[in-house]
């Protein structure tokens, strides 16, 4: 099969939805798997994307990244339908604030790290055999500038009320690098979409999520070797490296 198959997690809304839109705007010769933990939400997002007049093949798939049975089901579905996966975009992510009385301290850390780190590691690992069936396999992890140790230690990131989230994105960055060392046949990238207007931050972000989606779309489709493995953002219509 010549057409690239690209799966984006958490693609039913926000930046994930926009990543699928951005990919479809760049090429019609793609099969774009809109993964959501709710099949209904995946179907709804596919209808919305089709309503935008995009020409790529857009398909729904159920995938809760924190549920092992769901991940294995998605792997089997992709295997049965396509026999390979060209690009996995790990976009699904959560944030959250710990209660003033710390009553949910452990719960919040576990939940955020489980979704943003452990699940990315497991989803990536379980899709490796299908990625290895593709000619130029890639994994793009949607991280955040909040996970940049350089930006934090140089004071460029102001203090945050969402420490577990920042910790999770720093860990995701390291996971990206470690996995790239363990699996040198797969291209691993991390992206910072920037502060986007999504449900994630109560739609307070100044950036259009479609703009925030461009870095992941660019890395998914760029010719092999155009961008060295790293941490990237899309700024002023070009790719820019983000310090780790
Ligand atoms: N927005 C920003 O300013 C910003 C900045 C930097 C980085 N990011 C990163 O960008 C990514 C997307 O964020 P967003 O702003 O688009 O957030 P969002 O609007 O809240 O969307 C989050 C997506 O992740 C999905 N999700 C959460 N838990 C999941 C699970 N267990 N299994 C599968 N899907 C799950 C959600 O699904 P449901 O609809 O089912 O909840 C939703 O589709 C995240 O990794 C976030 O950390 C965002």
TrEMBL record:
Domain of life: Eukaryota
Annotated GO MF terms: oxidoreductase activity
Matching Gene3D superfamilies: NAD(P)-binding Rossmann-like Domain
GO cellular component: membrane
Keywords for this protein: NADP, Oxidoreductase
InterPro entries linked to this entry: NAD(P)-bd_dom_sf (IPR036291), Sc_DH/Rdtase_CS (IPR020904), SDR_fam (IPR002347)
Pfam families tied to this protein: adh_short
Family statement: Belongs to the short-chain dehydrogenases/reductases (SDR) family.
Name assigned to this protein: NAD(P)-binding protein
Organism: Zasmidium cellare ATCC 36951
Lineage of the species this protein comes from: Eukaryota, Fungi, Dikarya, Ascomycota, Pezizomycotina
């Amino acid at each position: 099969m010549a057409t690239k198959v690209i799966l984006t997690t958490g693609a039913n809304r926000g930046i994930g939805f926009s990543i699928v839109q951005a990919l479809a705007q760049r090429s019609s010769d793609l099969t774009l798997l809109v993964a959501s933990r709710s099949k209904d939400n995946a179907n709804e997002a596919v209808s919305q994307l089709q309503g935008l007049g995009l020409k790529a093949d857009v398909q729904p798939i159920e995938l809760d990244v924190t549920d092992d049975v769901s991940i294995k089901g998605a792997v089997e579905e992709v295997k049965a339908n396509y026999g390979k996966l060209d690009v996995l975009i790990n976009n699904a992510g959560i944030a959250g604030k710990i209660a003033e009385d710390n009553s949910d301290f452990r719960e919040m850390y576990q939940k955020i790290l489980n979704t943003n780190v452990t699940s990315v590691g497991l989803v990536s690992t379980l899709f490796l055999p299908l990625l290895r069936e593709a000619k130029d396999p890639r994994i793009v992890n949607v991280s955040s500038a909040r996970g940049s140790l350089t930006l934090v230690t140089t004071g460029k990131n102001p203090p945050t009320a969402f420490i577990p989230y920042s910790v999770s994105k720093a860990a995701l960055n390291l996971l990206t690098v470690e996995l790239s060392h363990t699996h040198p046949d797969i291209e691993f990238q991390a992206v910072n979409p920037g502060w986007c207007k999504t449900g994630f931050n109560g739609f307070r972000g100044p950036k259009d999520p479609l703009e925030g989606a461009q870095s992941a779309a660019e890395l998914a489709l760029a010719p092999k070797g155009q961008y060295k493995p790293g941490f990237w953002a899309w700024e002023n219509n070009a790719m820019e490296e983000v310090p780790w």
